[in-house]
Design goal:
- The protein folds into three domains: 3-118, Alpha-Beta Plaits; 132-140 and 299-476, no CATH class; 158-267, Transcription elongation factor, GreA/GreB, C-terminal domain (Chitinase A, domain 3).
- 50% of the residues lie in helices and 18% in strands.
- It has helices at residues 22-39, 52-81, 142-155, 204-209, 231-238, 243-247, 273-280, 288-301, 304-323, 331-341, 346-351, 353-372, 379-393, 400-411, 414-435, 446-476, and strands at 3-8, 13-20, 87-93, 110-118, 132-138, 158-161, 171-180, 183-184, 190-196, 217-221, 255-267, 438-444.
- The longest helix has 31 residues, at 446-476.
Length: 477
């Protein structure tokens, strides 16, 4: 069995030596070579009779390299899985690692040396009630609250007859007669219909109707009365043509005189317990003051996602700053690792190394909190994040039956699942942090919160775009 030895150079750097003895790989080498002999048919030899020296010459070096490399990778995987020590990046070949010669004629032990970057050991600062973070909360104006409250009263109110001047939200019932010139046409078309004032086309006729009341008359072009209606719609619903009338090609003049026979409007619901129970649920609210407070809370929570996003950014930045001195990184190792493992992106990442290093520090902080509070990500957590991602593609709405196949395809991609798991862990860690820190609430208008959120998001997107452009330029070279 290969032997593994770790030598700590300092607190952040170590050298890993993996020794693979001849006895570790020779039996497998012989076994695999015999398999080739038994299965292969090489020209000039009968099947199963090819001499081993001939097979060694043909396949020995590649086979030996494959077997030893496989053993090496298994040992490296075990080292990385060791949770007692957290490493940065991946092990990389030491600078003093000599070239390896896979000589099947002179088998001996193989020694591989790897440099390791060791994560710093630190006591986390900043996750306590004595450390405060700015937390934005939308302050909803009384005007918006009253507007929403009155809209609820109107929605749950009743249609009542009105004798007052016609207003924007009223329903007007007409009896109308066809005109010929300035007079009612003898034997002209007669009809009755109703229209909502707010559906009328903007213009003089609408303004004339508003302010009139039951019993008044008004003249209009029936085909231009409502906004956005076709001639077919007018014939069917305002002129009340039958199917036979339409099939026969019946036509009338366009000008009509309408008499206002009735006006109805939505009367606000009475402020009683039945109304409060309908709007807010049984036994939840008992008076207007409580109702408006609940509405204000609901309107404010609509921007909770943006507020939490800004808080997340502040928490991240502040925790990195508070713990930076206690979190030195093996910078030389990380830079070498970037050069070897991210060839196309290395120049861009190294040019912005401070931010890259802070990303690594934030990962260490998240891992520490996850371990401290035993935070685990479940399959259901990943599925919920996937659903949320897909719902976002559809503007926050979507039939679950339609979304299920899309989500399932996402969950079949290991790389996507890893990304979703990372997002799920980040969410859980953030809300755990939020429960254990002091929050300084800052009241802010909805407009100012969105402006602040959009400005931060735009800056991050621009930075990502510039970095992506740098990567693309590297690849073109």
């Amino acid at each position: 069995m290969p032997t593994v030895a770790r030598e700590d150079i300092d607190a952040l750097n170590a050298v890993l030596t993996i020794t693979i003895a001849k006895d570790d790989y020779e039996p497998t080498f012989k076994k695999e070579l015999n398999k080739i002999k038994d299965k292969g048919a090489i020209r000039g030899f009968r099947k199963g009779k090819t001499p081993l020296p001939f097979l060694k010459k043909m396949y020995g070096k590649g086979l030996l390299s494959e077997i030893v490399t496989d053993l090496l990778h298994k040992e490296l995987s075990e080292v990385i899985k060791d949770r007692e020590v957290q490493f940065m990046g991946q092990p990389i070949p030491s600078l003093n690692q000599p070239p390896v010669n896979f000589d099947y004629d002179n088998m001996s032990e193989y020694i591989f040396k790897f440099d390791l970057g060791v994560a710093p050991n630190f006591e986390l600062k900043g996750v306590d009630m004595n450390t405060t973070y700015d937390c934005y909360k939308v302050q909803v104006s009384d005007e918006k609250v009253n507007e929403r409250f009155e809209a609820a009263r109107k929605h749950y109110g009743e249609q009542v007859d009105s004798t007052e001047p016609i207003a924007e939200d009223d329903m007007v019932y007409f009896s109308a007669e066809e005109l010929e010139g300035d007079a009612i046409k003898a034997d002209g078309w007669k009809t009755t219909f109703s229209v909502l004032v707010n559906r009328l086309a903007d213009g003089p006729v609408k303004e004339e109707i508003k302010g009139k009341q039951k019993g008044d008359k008004v003249r209009f072009n029936v085909y231009e009365l409502e906004d956005g209606t076709s001639r077919e719609f007018v014939k069917k619903y305002l002129l009340n043509f039958t199917k036979a009338d339409i099939d026969e090609g019946t036509e009338t003049g366009e000008l009509y005189e309408g008499t206002i026979e009735r006006v109805t409007r939505q009367a606000p619901a009475e402020l009683n317990q039945a109304f409060f129970d309908k709007v807010f649920g049984p036994g939840e609210i008992y008076n207007e003051e409580e109702a408006k407070a609940r509405i204000a809370e609901s309107l404010g929570s609509a921007q909770k996602g943006q507020a939490d996003s800004l808080l997340y950014r502040e928490v991240r930045q502040k925790l990195i700053e508070l713990n930076r001195d206690a979190m030195p990184l093996p910078d030389d190792f990380i830079k070498r690792w970037l050069r070897l493992s991210h060839e196309q992106k290395a120049d861009a990442l190294l040019s912005d190394y401070d931010n890259f290093a802070n990303d690594m520090r934030w990962t260490l902080i998240k891992d520490k909190i996850a371990n401290q509070y035993e935070i685990a990500v479940t399959e259901e957590d990943i599925r919920q994040i996937a659903y949320g991602r897909v719902m976002g593609y559809f503007g926050g709405y979507g039939d679950p039956k339609m979304l299920d196949p899309i989500v399932q395809r996402m969950l079949e991609d290991p790389e996507t699942v890893n990304g979703l798991a990372g997002d799920a862990l980040a969410d859980k860690v953030f809300y755990k942090i939020k429960d254990h820190i002091g929050l300084s609430t800052i009241l802010i208008s909805e407009e100012d919160l969105l402006a602040k959120y959009n400005a931060v998001t735009k800056a991050e997107e621009e930075k990502a775009r510039l970095m992506q452009g740098t990567y693309a330029g590297d690849e073109e070279e």
